[in-house]
């Protein structure tokens, strides 16, 4: 199914004399470009689902390549035992106590 879709999309772009197809995108272009094929041992990047490693080869069959540095995701490691993170967690707890519905659904 995916192969048929990409073949048709490629044909459509040629029929309309377009020179580039860019993707994949989530609806929020600024937060979710490309596919995640490495780092499956860590939580996914924001708005980026996990993709099996074969996705890279599959998409490359249709001419997709990394576009500029646009497709990079960065891993950030946090040491939650550092004083600044403990302080931030303490502040978050204080805010939750004052406004218990922040960041969660309203009670039913």
Describe this structure in words.
With 108 residues, the chain is an all-alpha fold. It contains 3 helices and no strands. The chain is elongated, with a radius of gyration of 20 Å. The termini are far apart. The mean pLDDT is 75.
How many beta-strand segments? 0
**Number of helical stretches of at least 4 residues:** 3
Helical content, roughly? 25-40%
Largest sheet: none
**Order of helix and strand elements from N to C terminus:** HHH
Global outline: elongated
Radius of gyration from CA coordinates: 20 Å
Low-confidence stretches: none
The chain-level mean pLDDT equals 75
Amino- and carboxy-terminal Cα gap: 42 Å
Strand portion, in percent?
Answer: under 5%
- The SS-based structural class is mainly alpha
Task: Write a concise keyword list for the protein shown above.
108 residues, mainly alpha, 3 helices, 34% helix
What does this entry show, briefly?
The chain is an all-alpha fold and 108 residues long. It has 3 helices and no strands.
What are the SSEs and their pairings?
Elements: H1 2-15, H2 54-60, H3 83-98
């Amino acid at each position: 199914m995916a192969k048929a879709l990409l073949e048709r999309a490629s044909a459509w772009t040629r029929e309309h004399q377009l020179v580039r197809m860019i993707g994949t995108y989530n609806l929020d272009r600024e937060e979710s470009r490309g596919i995640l094929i490495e780092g499956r041992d860590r939580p996914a990047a924001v708005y980026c689902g996990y993709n099996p490693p074969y996705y890279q080869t599959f998409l490359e069959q249709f001419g997709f390549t990394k576009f500029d540095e646009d497709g990079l995701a960065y891993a950030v490691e946090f040491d939650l035992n550092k004083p600044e993170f403990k302080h931030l967690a303490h502040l978050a707890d204080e805010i939750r106590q004052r406004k218990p519905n922040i960041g969660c659904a309203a009670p039913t």
